[in-house]
Amino acid sequence: MTVVAHISDLHVCKLEFDEEVFMNAVSEINHLQPDMIILTGDLTNNGYYKEYQQAAKYLKMFEAPIFVVPGNHDARNLGYQTFEELIGERSWKLTMDGNLTVIGLDSSTPDENRGHIGNPQHMWLDHQLDECVINENFSIVVLHHHVISIPQTGRERNVLSDAGDILKTLTGHEVDLVLSGHKHVPNVWKINNTVVVNAGSLCSTKLRGKNKNSYMVYNISDEHIEIILNIVGGEKFLFGKYARNVL
Ligand SMILES: [Fe+2]
Ligand SMILES: [Fe+2]
From ligand 1's centre to the CA of 97, what distance in Å? Predict the structure, then answer.
C-alpha cells in the first residue's frame, strides 16, 4: 500500500499562519510515516522572499519527501522566481517504484488570483499522461486551483480559466487522482473514472465558517483509494473510498 499525505495552503506570514497548528500537523504526519507528502500551493501568503525562507525551514521539518506546486499567493511579488530558487521546479513529474506517477502543474499567474494552465503546459501534461496510460501507472495530477467548483465557497472566481480542456485531458486519460487546494474547503468529486480532491488549509487562520485546519491522507492499495480527512489535533473521517481504475 502507498500512503500519501496531502497538505495545502499554509500561508506562511506574520498574521494568518498558525505556527502551533502547523507544529501539531508536522508531528501527526511524521508519526504517520507517509511515502510522500504533496503540498498543493499557497505555502506563503504574499510570495515575499522572507516568507519563502521561513516556509523552506518549516517544510524541512517533515520527514517524508515533499513535493510542492505554487499557488496564486506564491506567485505574488516575484515569488514565482523565488519558488524556483528555494523550493524547486514549478512543473515536474515523478515516478515512484515504476508504477505511480505524480505530475505537478503550475496553475498560477504572477500577481493574479485566477487559475490557468495554458497550452504549453497542457500539451506537456497530455504527453505525460499518454505515457502513464501506456505504462499502466497509477497517476496523480497536482495543481493549486480547483478544476471543478467547490460547494460553500461563495461566488466562483478562480476555477481554472481553461478548466474544460484540462478536465477533458484528465478524464480522457482516466487519471486516478487530481489534487488541489486554494479554496480552504475539503471536497471530493468523482467525474467519470477520476477522483478530484480538494484539501482544506493546513494551518492558516483564513477559514470559512466552522471549517477547521485539516489535511488529507490517501491509502492507495491495488484495489482501492481510501481518502481520510484529518482535522489537525482532532478527528479523522473516511471522506471517500473508490475502487481502483482497471485499464
Ligand atoms: Fe490559499
Ligand atoms: Fe490560493
Answer: 32
